[in-house]
Amino acid sequence: MVMTSALRSTRFSILDRSRVRAGQSHPAALRETVEFGRLAEEWGYHRFWVSEHHSVPGVAGSAPTVLAATIAAATSRIRVGTGGVMLPNHQPLVVAEQFGVLESLYPGRIDMGLGRSVGFTDGVRRALGHDRRDAEDFDAQLTELLDYFEAGRDGVHGWPAEGLRIPAFLLAIGSGAERAARFGLPLVIAAAGGEDAMVEAIDHYRSDFRPGRGGDAPYVVVSGSAAIADTAEQAHRLLLPEAWSAAYSRTRGEFPPLSSPERIEAEPMTDRQRRLFEEALRGHLYGTEETVVAGLDRLIRRTGADEFLVHTSTFDRAARLDSHRRLAAAVGLTAPSPV
Asked: 232 near 292, Cβ under 8 Å?
């Protein structure tokens, strides 16, 4: 397989949400995430990130900094971080202290990915101690958090964070791209609103970028799913469980555990569920290595991304691991990327 210059200069990383499969316990899903991180390092991925979700039956990852610490302890080279910690759910001082501890224990390997989503339901938002209006204060929260890594704030110090250089990334939810440019932070963006909208947001981010605490130049991480199997049909079936989970959540208000493709195909769907299910299956990279590499090359060339963050989930654990292993080999990750 001929590797293009675009892919040779691109980093590849993984985001794992600790998805729970039907019949599986949440503790088992978390243990799988830790093992997945160890394998990601072995295969040569640059970063391994975990996410934050609360009161979601199909997601076990509710405490990303705790999980990141466990993965960092089980690995030795790969960067470990969050994609992301949802800042409206936490006091900035506590977040700074948590990442300060992580970086102190695993120096040079910790990333701080940040987002602004709040709880999925009113009940979850109340349990977290806020409502949707809290997200409007995100700029102030972000400024306060970053201050603790410098000289503190109002006489308060976020030790051991103070003085540490921990890369901060901003997830592009809502006005995230504009905010990342204004704060001078790396941008993590998905094509959730369509590839054209994503490219437009990236262009604005680059043109509006102001050097800041994240560095002197823009840095773009594009996130997406990529499923590799022996045939296009097999790879497409790997996408069915996550697509059905997304459709179910939008019609039932709850993200369920992942079901098998066979069970999904036998599931009676309403017209709305069928439409949402089919929408959720669009825009993914899947197929054999050659097909996926060609799709990645086109995507990287169009977006100019510095990094691709894979977040593929499926019911078949072995097939998912095999897909990520084959992707690593297909894009030439023969050794861990330099930190």
From this structure: no
pLDDT tens, 223-242?
A: 999 999 999 999 999 999 99
Q: How many domains does the chain have?
A: 1
Is a pLDDT exceeding 60 seen at residue 326?
yes
Stated length of the chain: 339
Question: Does any domain span residue 219?
Answer: yes
Provide the residue range defining the domain that includes 207: 5-239+284-330
